[in-house]
Amino acid sequence: MTDINGICEPRFAAVREALAAALGKDDVGASVAVYLDGEPVVDIWGGYADAERSVGWERDTLTGVNSTTKNMVALCALVLADRGRLDLSAPVAAYWPEFAAAGKENVLVRHVLSHTAGLPDLPGPTSVEDLYDWDSVTAGLAAQAPQWEPGKAAGYHALTFGFLIGEIVRRITGQSLGEFFAETVAGPLGADFHIGLSGEHDHRVAPLIPPPSLTDEYAAGAPAGPDGVPREITGAVIRVGDTNSVAWRRAQIPAVNGFGNARSVALVQSVLANRGTAGGVRLLSPQGCEPAWQEVFRGEDRILRTPMCWTVGFGRFGSTFGWGGWGGSLVASDPGSRMTVAYVMNQMIDRDRQEDNRGLEILMAAYSGLH
């Protein structure tokens, strides 16, 4: 049996068992956290921080969580809305005048947050290096025409989500999204999560490990549709090797380049499941949390090619909302139970080649502890 470290209340023993099972089978290193009423009831980790299994996964090990970062971006927008600085129903151009170009004057902030803005692709052919130039990317998005009538259809905004929300946040606050998150969210909560990672933390990073039999050239892509045909990737092709680079860590690509562990992911997101507070710190009013689970769009997602329910910033699945990241990480919150569950790992799984139920099994184990 793999050694599991940390705290786990007895009624959540099934969560510890689920992590042990994952580490015994597919995982190399991972962390799991469950927050109830804004307080940790499970905070566990185990395994190794490297593919060679020579460095142990520690309490403060960090790793890239890819699109699980989108949950943090959405929370930043909800905090600004709750404080009266951002109107979710206002046109994006009210904050970012140049954005009104090419027929986007009626694109609302909530359209961007719910993946219904019609801007799923970055403008022009782009390399990963191009993503590091914030002004160039956002200027290109401002000039772009929407691919569908905003609000009428949804298509997962895999990379553009972070640039669009990030630029709105920058226009309102004068701060990059990473700076705003650090000062307004992570700082007050004491959450060890970073969008744009400074060099002092590099020694704690567990690099992402490509799926079995694949290399660092393994690239992110949209999932295949029901016909088995993957959607063509437009723009930057992001490989595992890119996500493990120093340039990637330092950049602001808020849809995908957050670094943290299960504890920090669950702590931050538990604010939304617990009526605006976590660990005795209030970030939002109870009403300010509600857009996170209020349905904006339900139907076929044009990019993911699957039925989706999008809220203001999150995917909704039954009574839970949240989102996961390329390779396997995820966070899910249930406001009815006031519970948030997070799973963060370094071993990626390619869902086109292999079923990946690691996060789901941990989530179901957490629910078993509530009864």
Structure explained in plain terms:
The protein is an alpha+beta fold. Helices cover 28% and strands 17% of the residues. It has helices spanning 13-25, 70-82, 109-113, 134-143, 160-173, 177-189, 240-243, 246-250, 262-273, 286-289, 358-368, and strands spanning 4-8, 29-36, 39-47, 63-64, 194-195, 258-260, 277-278, 281-282, 297-301, 306-310, 315-317, 320-324, 330-334, 339-345. The strands form 4 sheets. It has a 7-stranded antiparallel β-sheet, sandwiched between helices. A 3-stranded antiparallel β-sheet has the order 4-6-5. Strands 7-8 form a two-stranded antiparallel ribbon. Helix 1 (13-25) runs antiparallel to helix 11 and helix 4 crosses helix 5.
List keywords for this structure.
371 residues, alpha+beta, seven-stranded antiparallel β-sheet, three-stranded antiparallel β-sheet, 11 helices, 14 strands, 28% helix, 17% strand
Mean pLDDT across every amino acid position: 94
Largest sheet: 7 strands, antiparallel
Distance between the termini: 27 Å
What does the oligomeric state look like here?
single chain
* Low-pLDDT segments: 224-232
Q: How are helices and strands ordered from N to C?
A: EHEEEHHHHHEHHEHEEHEEEEEEH
Spatial order of strands in the largest sheet: 1-3-2-14-13-12-11
Strand fraction band? 15-25%
How many helices? The count is 11
Task: Give the overall shape, derived from the CA principal axes.
Answer: globular
Structural class by SSE content: alpha+beta
How many E strands? 14
Radius of gyration: 19 Å
The helix content is 25-40%
